[in-house]
Design a protein that fits this description.
It is a single chain. The protein is of the alpha/beta class. It has two domains: 3-135 and 256-286, Response regulator (Rossmann fold, 3-Layer(aba) Sandwich), CATH 3.40.50; 137-255 and 289-315, 3-Layer(aba) Sandwich (Rossmann fold). Helices cover 38% and strands 19% of the residues. The protein is built from ten helices and eleven strands. It has helices at residues 9-16, 47-61, 78-87, 101-110, 137-150, 165-181, 198-210, 223-230, 258-269, 300-315, and strands at 34-40, 65-71, 92-96, 115-119, 129-132, 155-160, 186-191, 215-218, 233-238, 249-255, 289-293. The longest helix is centred in the middle third of the chain and has 17 residues, at 165-181. The two termini are 31 Å apart.
């Protein structure tokens, strides 16, 4: 992988701390740090994994947890990694079960004294298998509102990983934001078939630009490289890509894992079951996600309209549609 297609680990991790700083009161932390393991199916450079990794590293630096991790763990090795960390005495395992939903739940059933809190498209199970979703769709919708007023070709595009419910919801939210302010705009969608392949995401972005798109929503790393190469604007997801692409990425739908981590750690420390859905801690109205954008790139009236909806989301007056169907 070339350097221009790969964001440095330092930049990714720094941007991943933008949301969800520690909200635990000092007295809520245990005297002995909780032993936590992270299992990352992709390298921690991947935007989603970097959000988890940054939050876990920050919690470790504060002394709340002891953190070890594995990255680039394949689906076939994932259950083995879960078992090994449980056998080693880690009290909480953080990771993802998207490719191993059935197997992950079986491991959790075999280790009832270990808490597993994993990113998942499924439900929680038992007392020790909790789940969370990456719901930064609020920010994606708001970015779509800006993009809908900025497009000159009336064509925008989204490059996603795999059409799982959460990815679908994110891309659909962006498209709905565009549609809300520009009903005539066309929305192109491509999936690269994997969670981490920046060159493939770049190729998909270039194809959409060739098809007329003049703004790209990069659900995957690499999309902004296509936009930069062709001189168009792009929207980032999960982390703030603007520092790396200052003339290309004008808005980002941010998501922070720290509020979810804080809640899970607090439950484990208190001896409470983690068999619950922690997704809500990452929502915009809970302070777990947001939009960050470069002011003055979109028309002033578009920014004002977007900010009104942003305030309504935070107050609960408006709810962004949750459409998990695969985009057409």
């Amino acid at each position: 992988m070339t350097n221009d297609l790969r964001m440095s680990r330092r930049a990714l991790i720094a941007s991943g701390i933008a949301l969800g700083v520690s909200t635990l009161a000092p007295g809520a932390r245990a005297a002995t740090p909780l032993k936590v393991a992270g299992i990352h199916a992709s390298p921690v450079e991947n935007a989603w994994n970097s959000c988890l990794h940054a939050a876990l590293q920050a919690a470790a630096k504060e002394g709340m947890i002891e953190y070890v991790f594995s990255e680039g763990v394949s689906g076939t090795d994932y259950p083995r990694a879960m078992r090994e960390y449980a056998e080693q005495g880690h009290k909480l395992v953080i990771g993802e079960s998207y490719a191993v939903e059935k197997e992950a739940r079986q491991v959790a059933a075999d280790y009832p004294d270990t808490a597993f809190v994993l990113g998942s498209s499924g439900n929680e199970e038992g007392d020790n298998f909790g789940v969370f979703g990456t719901w930064n769709h609020d920010g994606a919708y708001l970015a779509g509102m800006l993009a809908g007023k900025m497009t000159k070709s009336n064509v925008v595009g989204s490059v996603g990983a795999i059409p799982i419910p959460e990815v679908n919801m994110l891309i659909n939210a962006f498209a709905e934001g565009v549609k809300a302010v520009n009903p005539d705009a066309k929305h192109l969608t491509s999936f690269i078939g994997t969670f981490f392949d920046p060159p493939k995401a770049r190729e998909a972005g270039l194809a959409q630009i060739d098809a007329g798109a003049d703004i790209l929503f990069g659900e995957r790393i690499g999309t902004a490289d296509a936009a930069k190469e062709r001189g168009i604007k792009a929207v980032g997801s999960l982390i703030d890509y603007t520092p790396r692409y200052p003339d290309t990425v004008f808005a980002n739908a941010l998501w922070g894992f720290r509020p979810i981590l804080n809640a899970a750690v607090a439950d484990v420390q208190a001896g409470k079951p983690v068999g619950k859905n922690y997704t809500a801690f990452g929502l915009m109205k809970e302070g777990g996600s947001d939009i960050v954008y470069v002011k003055g790139v979109a028309p002033a009236e578009a920014e004002a309209a977007m900010e009104k909806v942003r305030a309504d989301i935070k107050s609960g007056a408006f709810e962004v549609p949750k459409n998990m169907d695969e985009p057409k």
